[in-house]
Amino acid sequence: MDSYFENEELDEFESIPDEILSTFPDQNQWGELLFDANGNMPLTPEEQEVMIQRLEQKFIEVMDILRISRRDPNSNRTPMRIARMLVKELFAGRYQEPPKSTIFPNRKKVNELIISKGITVMSVCSHHWQPISGDCAIGYIPNKYVLGISKLTRIVDWFCRRGQIQEELGEQIADYIESLIKPKALGVVIRARHYCMIARGVKGNEENSLMITSVMRGYLLTDLNLRNEFLNLIGMGYVK
To answer: How many CA atoms lie within 13 A of 138 on its CB side?
Structure first.
C-alpha cells in the first residue's frame, strides 16, 4: 500500500484500485466505526468532547511535524482551537441529530412554487478540507404538507457542516426534503466558490470561479415552463 501512494506520478483524483481500498480499515484505533465524509453518526456531547481531546493531541503532532513552535503566543492554543472548530462547527453536521422540521398540512391546497433563496452555504470540500462558500435556492410545489420556511435553512446548514462535494450536497438536501414532505416538484440550486481551486491548485480568480449545480425532481424535472419559472424567480434566467 505504501509503494502505491509513494508514486509521485499518481494523479490525486485517480481511482484507487479495489485491492488497495480493501486494506483500508473500517474502524479507528479505538475500535470505533468509520463512515463517509458527508455521512452522519450522532454523538453525545461527552463523546464529542473525547473526540476533541484526541484531536488536540494529534494536531500537536501535526504542528511539531510542520515545525511550528507552540511557544509562539499566536499558536500555543491552536491545536485545541482546530479540534473544537472541526467537531463543533465545520463538521458538526456529522455528529448532530437532524434538525427538527416543522411540517404543516397543506390546508389551502397550495399548488404553486414556494421558494427560499439566498440560503448560506458554508462547507468544507472532502478532497482538501478547503472552504466551500456560496448560496442555495430551494423551490417546491407542496403535496399534502408544507415545510416551515426556516427549516430549509437549517436543513442546508446541517448537510453543509461536514466534508462535501457540491454535487452530492444538492442531492442529499433534495433527498431529505423529499423524505419529509414528498412534494410534487422540487428544485435545489447551489452556487459556490471552492477554495481548493482558489487558494491552491489552479488558483482560479475568486470573483469568477463559481460552481453551479442543480437538482430537479418531479414536475421541475419534466415541465420546462415550470423549471424556467423557478430559475427566473431565483435569478438564474431561462433554459431554452
So the answer is: 27
